[in-house]
Amino acid sequence: MKTVTPSVKPHARNLPLKVGTRGSPLARQQTATFLAILKQFCPVLRGMEVFEEHIIVTTGDAVQHKALAEIGGKGLFAKEIHESLEEGRIDFAVHSLKDLETTLPPGIALACTLKREDARDVLILPRGRELADPADPFSGLPPGAIVGSASVRRQAQLKYARPDLQFTLLRGNVGTRLGKVEAGELDATLLAYAGLRRLGLAEKASVVLDTDHMLPAACQGIVGITVREADTELLSLLSAIEDPEAKAVATAERALLASLDGSCRTPIGGYAQLLADGSLHLTGLVARYDGTFLLKRSVTGAVTDAATMGLELGLSLKADSPDDIFLP
User: Fold this and answer.
1) 26 — phi, psi (to 5°)?
2) Distance (Å, rounded) from C-alpha 67 to C-alpha 227?
3) First and final CA of the chain: distance in angstroms?
4) Is the pLDDT of residue 91 over 60?
5) Of 67, 115, 178, 302, which one's alpha carbon is 20 to 30 angstroms from that of 129?
6) What percentage of the chain exceeds 90 in pLDDT?
7) Distances from the Cα of 241 to the Cαs of 2, 70, 104, 145, 249, in angstroms?
C-alpha cells in the first residue's frame, strides 16, 4: 500500500468521524488497529482527534444463553450496527467479516477488507494436558470429553473425527471461554487463532488446527469495514487501504456462502488462499451438525474468477448433500 492523501478533508464534513464497533475486547482491538492503519496511510489525519468510537450492543452480544439460531439466525452481530449507519449515528463500522451477512441491507456497502490474520482454529485444553498422539490433534481429548462451543461448524467437524465427544453451548468473549476451560468446567473449547493473536494471547492455544483437520469459517481472520453506499467520500478513502489478497479470498468465500444459503443451523466452512503461481484455491465444506455427514471439495482458478468459483463450488456441494442439512 502507498501513503495517500484522503479525499475526505477534515474541514469538508462534520467531525469527529464516528466509528461503530461491538464492545468486546477483540472488537475494540480490531477497531484500534483499523484506525491506526487509516492514519498511517492518510497523513492529514495524524495527530488529530478526528475519530470517535461508538460501542454498539448487538443482539448477539446481549443474548448469551441461547444458540444464535434460536434468537434470529444471520446478522445478529451486525443488525444494530447497520441501523446506526442507516440513521447517521455513525459514519462507518468495523466488523469481523465472518459475522457479516453475505447480503447487506439496502444502502450499506462493504467498503474494504483488511489483511487477513491466521485463519485457523485452535483447540484450548486445560493447562498441562498433552496430546497422547502428536500426529492426532484431537488426542488430548479423553473419551467422552465435554467440549464447549456455539459453532455448529466446529461441532460437526469435531464430531465427524471423534463421535464420542459431547458438546455444550458456550458463548461469550474470548476471556470468558478461556476461563471456563481454565476453571475445569469443560474439557476443551475451540477458538479462532486470529482473535487470540490480536489480543496477544497466542500462547493460550494448545493445538493450532491445520485446515485439513478443521476448515475455518468463511472470512475468519478478516476485518471488514462498512459505510453508507451514498457516502462516496468515505468509500473512496477506505478503498486506499483495501488489502488485495483479503479482497480476493473474501470474495470467493462470501460467494460460496451466498450460493449455499445456509442458516445458523447449517455447518459450513470456507477457506481460500492465493497460491505461489498467483491462482486462487478455494475449499468448501458442508456437514450435518451431529457429524454423521461431511462433504468437502476444492477448486482452483484465476483470482478474477473468485466470485464464480465460490458460486459454483457452493452449488456443487449443495447438489450432493442431503436436503435436511439446509432446512431453516
Assistant:
1) -70, -45
2) 29
3) 42
4) yes
5) 67
6) 76
7) 9, 37, 21, 44, 16
Candidates 91, 99, 231, 243; catalytic one: 99
Rounded Cα distance between 100 and 76, Å, is 9
Residue 311 has a CB neighbour count (10 Å cut-off) of 17
Of the candidates 256, 262, 252, 258, the residue with the CA atom closest to the CA atom of residue 305: 252
Spatial distance between the Cα atoms of 296 and 310, rounded to a whole number of angstroms:
13
CA nearest to 181, candidates 211, 164, 201, 198:
201
pTM over 0.85: yes
Q: What are the residues whose beta carbons fall under 8 Å from the beta carbon of 192, sequence distance 6 or more?
A: 119, 120, 121, 122, 216, 217, 220, 221
Please name the amino acid found at residue 231.
D
At 251, is the secondary structure helix, strand, or coil?
Answer: helix
Find the helix or strand (DSSP H, E) in which 159 lies.
Answer: helix 152-161
Q: Could you tell me which residue, 119 or 57, shows the higher pLDDT?
A: 119
Q: List the beta bridge partners of residue 19.
A: 53, 92
> Active site includes 290?
no
* C-alpha span between 266 and 269 (Å, rounded): 10
Buried b (16+ CB within 10 A) or exposed e, 144-171: ebbbbbbbbbbbbbbbbbbeebebeebb
Q: Which three cell numbers stand for residue 293?
A: 455427514
Q: Of 59 and 28, which is predicted with more confidence?
A: 28
